[in-house]
Amino acid sequence: MLSFAQKFRPLRAGLIFLMALSGAVAIAPPSVSAQESCPAAKQQIEAIDPMIKGPIAALQTSGHPVDFSGLVFKREDGSAFSLADFKGKTVLLNLWATWCAPCRHEMPDLDGLQAALGGDDFEVVTVSLDRKSPDKPRAFFDEIGIEHLTLYYDEKMAMFPALRSKGMAFGMPSTLIINKDGCSLAHMAGPAAWASAEAQELVKAIVESE
After folding, report:
1. Rounded to an integer, what distance in angstroms lies between the CA atom of residue 88 and that of residue 13?
2. What is residue 132's predicted lDDT score, i.e. its pLDDT?
3. Alpha-carbon distance 51 to 54, whole Å?
């Protein structure tokens, strides 16, 4: 039987795209080194590297850490929000859109991960890149029974080029694991079984190390 990653490899390849988009998203300035702004991240990356296997084997730690605490997006009511608002929490940040088939397929898994581990120390943050209002993603959440995820959106799609500029987004879905300081530990291009035992153990290891 084909694994989750093997089953969706053709879809993933077909959705890889290069996007020349305008829009600025604040990231830690070049003068601030990762060592200065992300003091704990290097050891965390070394600790989780052996745990990247099975359904999350496509996670990559190269190029990390980067301080992404300045990434901004919106709540469903249109108010501004950022990763800095999650300071103190480990975050699994997922960029998706309703027109992306693999994104739609993995959403129940993301909901399952939030149900299992979400709380004071961890949160799954799904940011829709659908244009205009969040009506379409809200309708999709309601249609498939998403119960544990908060809906965030970025109608200008500014987050995607910000991640792409760091080599951490090439298509959708794109996922980052962020520590409690807003520093990236790993990224993945394409869908994954985020509710799997392997994914949960990795998240637990990060939370316990902080």
Report:
1. 35
2. 82
3. 9
